[in-house]
Design a protein that fits this description.
Elements: E1 13-14, E2 17-18, H1 20-31, H2 37-40, H3 46-55, H4 59-68, H5 73-84, H6 89-101, H7 109-118, H8 129-136
Antiparallel strand pairs: 1-2
């Protein structure tokens, strides 16, 4: 998959959370007709669904709130906390650690291996689903040590 303008790395944080901003990017890109078709079928499911369940918000409600356009990413995260309850620092640390390591020695490993083969990324140092997403979209998370930012 080529680089998708406006779609950030899953490692990028909004507030204390990885992935949340990427989900918002996908929502906005889809509304603008700029999200590749391969991504559309997974809107609100997969990592989006996990993120919404972690925040205890409904994906459709978050999507609608994001598309209202009056809140930036930090404001949308605050809205999620107001709806589903504030997450503790420890909960955010556990969320980030789980998400950044998904596919490495866990139940997601077979899916990651399949996607690496399908995308011909066997020569890249892909260890996790986040690595896979970045390499597949033309970013190199390893050289910039994306997990540390």
């Amino acid at each position: 998959m080529p680089t998708i303008p406006g779609l950030r790395s899953p490692y990028a944080k909004t507030g204390r959370l990885v992935y949340f901003g990427r989900m918002l990017d996908k929502i906005r890109l889809h509304a603008a007709g700029a999200l590749p078709a391969d991504y559309v079928e997974n809107l609100g499911t997969g990592f989006d669904g996990r993120c919404c369940r972690f925040l205890r918000v409904d994906y459709t409600a978050l999507r609608d709130r994001a598309l209202a356009g009056d809140l930036d990413d930090a404001g949308l995260l605050a809205w999620c906390h107001a709806q589903g309850g504030e997450r503790t620092d420890e909960e955010c640390e556990v969320w980030n650690g789980f998400m950044m390591k998904r596919g490495w020695r866990d139940a997601g490993a077979p899916t990651l291996a399949r996607r690496i083969r399908e995308s011909a990324l066997e020569e890249k140092p892909v260890m996790t689903m986040f690595d896979y997403l970045d390499f597949d979209e033309g970013r190199d998370p390893v050289s910039v040590r994306a997990w540390e930012t």
